[in-house]
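Batch manifest line 216
LIGAND: flavin mononucleotide
JOB: complex structure
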Amino acid sequence: AMRDQTSVPISIKLRTGWDQNSINYLETAAIAEEAGVCAITLHARTRAQGYAGKADWEAIKALSEQTSVPVFGSGDVLSASAAMSMIRETGCNGVMIARGAIGNPFIFSDIHELAHRRNAEAYSNKPPSLFLESPSNPESTFIYRRPDIIAQTALRHLEMSTKYIGETRACIEFRKHFCAYTRGLPGGAELRAQAVRCSTIDEYKPLFEIITRIYS
Ligand SMILES: Cc1cc2nc3c(=O)[nH]c(=O)nc-3n(C[C@H](O)[C@H](O)[C@H](O)COP(=O)(O)O)c2cc1C
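JOB STATUS: finished
ARTIFACT:
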């Protein structure tokens, strides 16, 4: 019915079902496809699960097999290598990333590079002192990410957010993002303790400078 009301493409996103006893995604997706959706995204957990347990990638595979429109997989893609694994294991057409991008917007370019095997040395061949432990990338223990790039990107994020919602709200909201950007950085705990008191960009700037100096 919505399909007939608009020329805008309509896609849907669903979970596998309400709970283990009402797994209904294949049926729901088939109805949606019949109704004319252009793409289907599946977060492969039940509503009752919330974020508990592991996403059921087998469900993404089953959906991909029965569906003619593009299928996007969602759930537990927390690293570039996980994105490649999901595509390989499920045959989905694309992945959707949520938690894995928090504090790590680099995940998208990481996937691009991994998919195209460009710059493979960025993952394997840097001096050990430049490898940083990355909790967002549990599959390969170390990933190369220069702290000065993190600081520069985080500041840009904060400035863009300020344009949307104003400096005070952006700075308060950014406290949680700052924590995510600095996870695993040497001295990160002390930086986060200071960030939770920042309400202006100028108050954040010395923290970004400290991060930048980790690499110099
Ligand atoms: C901050 C945040 C906001 C989200 N907002 C939405 C939303 O508006 N609509 C939706 O369908 N899913 C939303 N989700 C769920 C994600 O799209 C995704 O299906 C789920 O987090 C599992 O993927 P992940 O393992 O990559 O986080 C959100 C998730 C996060 C972390």
